[in-house]
């Protein structure tokens, strides 16, 4: 029997079901906290090991958030205990999607038994909207990606499902889509566009990523998105027109504390803080390329030598890439650590990114342009030195270059290679030269949106209110 809140309104039961990547799982968990904060019940579905790796819930919310462990089917193509993208190399993520699809029976049983009001899911479970609709459950897609990336993916759900998008070659993705009606520079570089071609073709799971997304759009009642009207709002309007669905921004979800996967080590921050304290305000470059990027030996070498050549103090979060083992770890250039010991720090395990970016000595962020990292960098007003690699990152970089909050490291258009000189020159331009002042000013301007906690809190409040008022019929 449904319960009621103190104000007399019905307590909702909302199911959250993210894709098996911590860049997705953590935003879904943060959104779950916003729902529970308003007194509603949340069932958070993920695999057993991923749930074990989640940060602890706040004690006042844990009674309302039920962490539901699911058993991921075993596939011989996946390493033992591989349950997230961080556990596999990029080419094996297709097998993770196949295993993920094997969760369908268990998820269906849960929904039948618990009869929630809403289910909020990611791009991957293309089979889920139809099941939820048959059970009379309201359905929403929560996109951890921003509006321009989703708009770039396809012009309509039908085209995405039927494969009737006429963009079939690499060249087709080197210009903005024909359905973008306003001036835009959003497109892939040649070395990035293979990903988009591949995503339109079936992988080991039997379907393409574009098909998954099309089915998700077709079967949803609405779309929630990590976005806000104050930044590039025209993309939200376009998405509603393309997909004939309400698109509701939930805000940029800037973190108030660092959300780490694994144990947070206070002594880690103390060591890093002591180092940062010894440097001049606004002069240190923070370098982090995420946990999914598989850098080649050449990329690591050119990046390292470029940091050294710039002469700027830097702290580099240099973690082994997703799914890598000791045998395929990439080493830094000979003698590099010795040569930079007075002005550089390389950290090879988890770092408290938000605390580092918040330190006065940091003046710029060399980033892979993942949306979460962009939000963290811009909420603190840091200009960006952009080195995108995967999925949405290149498109994000094009938009942010156009907004003049930073620059992209120049690269070879064909293979994406870059040189130590291009890294050093980019860093110097943004942090050390007069020309870089405009990037700092524009990044600080955007921090008034990205870092406005009151504004972003209003978005999450409005999101929960939407859930309360728009309980759909099947």
Model description:
The chain is of the alpha/beta class. Helices cover 39% and strands 13% of the residues. It is built from 19 helices and 13 strands. It has helices at residues 22-37, 48-52, 93-101, 104-114, 128-134, 147-153, 157-162, 194-199, 209-219, 234-243, 266-277, 297-310, 336-339, 353-358, 371-379, 393-402, 420-431, 437-450, 453-469; strands at 13-17, 41-47, 65-70, 118-121, 138-143, 222-225, 247-249, 284-288, 314-317, 344-347, 362-367, 384-386, 406-408. Strands 3-2-1-4-5-6-7 form a seven-stranded parallel β-sheet, with helices on both faces. It has a six-stranded parallel β-sheet with strand order 10-9-8-11-12-13, with helices on both faces. Helix 6 runs parallel beside helix 10, helix 12 packs across helix 17 and helix 15 (371-379) packs across helix 18 (437-450). The chain is globular and about 65 Å long. GO terms for molecular function: UDP-glucosyltransferase activity. Its EC number is 2.4.1.-.
Strand order of the largest sheet: 3-2-1-4-5-6-7
User: What kind of sheet is the major sheet?
Assistant: 7 strands, parallel
Proportion of strand residues: 5-15%
What's the N-to-C terminus distance?
Answer: 20 Å
Low-pLDDT ranges? 258-264
Question: From the alpha-carbon coordinates, what is the Rg to the nearest angstrom?
Answer: 22 Å
Distinct helical segment count = 19
Total DSSP E strands: 13
Q: What general outline do the C-alpha atoms trace?
A: globular
Helix residue percentage? 25-40%
Given helix and strand content, the structural type is alpha/beta
């Amino acid at each position: 029997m449904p319960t009621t809140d103190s104000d007399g309104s019905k307590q909702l039961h909302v199911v959250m079901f993210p894709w098996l990547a911590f860049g997705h799982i953590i935003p879904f968990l943060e959104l779950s906290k916003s729902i529970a904060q308003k007194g509603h019940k949340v069932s958070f579905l993920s695999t057993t090991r991923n749930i074990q790796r989640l940060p602890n819930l706040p004690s006042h919310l844990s009674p309302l958030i039920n962490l539901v462990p699911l058993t991921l089917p075993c596939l011989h193509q996946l390493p033992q205990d591989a349950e997230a993208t961080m556990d596999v190399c990029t080419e094996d993520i297709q097998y993770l999607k196949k295993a993920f699809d094997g969760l369908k029976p268990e998820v269906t049983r849960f929904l039948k038994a618990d009869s929630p009001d809403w289910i909020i899911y990611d791009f991957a479970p293309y089979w889920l909207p139809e099941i939820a609709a048959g059970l009379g459950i309201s359905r929403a897609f929560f996109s951890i990606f921003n509006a321009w990336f989703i708009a770039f993916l396809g012009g309509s759900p039908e085209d995405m499902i039927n494969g009737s998008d006429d963009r079939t070659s690499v060249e087709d993705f080197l210009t903005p889509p024909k359905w973008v009606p306003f001036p835009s520079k959003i497109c892939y570089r040649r070395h990035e566009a293979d990903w988009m071609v591949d995503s339109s073709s079936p992988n080991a799971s039997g379907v393409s990523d574009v098909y998954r997304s099309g089915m998700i759009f077709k079967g949803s009642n609405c779309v929630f998105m990590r976005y806000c009207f104050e930044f590039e709002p025209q993309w939200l309007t376009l998405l509603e027109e393309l997909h004939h669905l309400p698109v509701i921004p939930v805000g940029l979800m800037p973190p108030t504390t660092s959300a780490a996967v694994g144990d947070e080590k206070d002594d880690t921050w103390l060591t890093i803080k002591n180092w940062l304290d010894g440097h001049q305000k606004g002069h240190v470059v923070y370098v982090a390329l995420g946990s999914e990027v598989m850098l080649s030996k050449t990329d690591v070498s050119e990046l390292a030598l470029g940091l050294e050549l710039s002469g700027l103090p830097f702290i580099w979060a240099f973690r082994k890439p997703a799914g890598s083992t000791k045998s395929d770890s990439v080493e830094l250039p000979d003698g590099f650590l010795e040569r930079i010991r007075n002005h550089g720090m390389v950290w090879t395990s988890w770092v408290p990114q938000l605390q580092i970016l918040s330190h006065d000595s940091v003046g710029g962020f060399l980033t892979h342009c993942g949306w979460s990292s962009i939000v963290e960098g811009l909420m603190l007003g840091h200009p960006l030195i952009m080195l995108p690699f995967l999925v949405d990152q290149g498109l994000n970089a094009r938009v942010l270059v156009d907004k003049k909050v930073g620059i992209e490291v120049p690269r070879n258009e064909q293979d994406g290679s870059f040189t130590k000189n291009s890294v050093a020159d980019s860093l110097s331009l943004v942090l050390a030269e007069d020309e870089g002042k405009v990037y700092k000013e524009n990044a600080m301007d955007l921090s008034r949106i990205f870092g406005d906690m009151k504004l972003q809190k209003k978005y999450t409040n409005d999101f929960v209110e939407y859930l309360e008022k728009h309980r759909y019929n099947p």
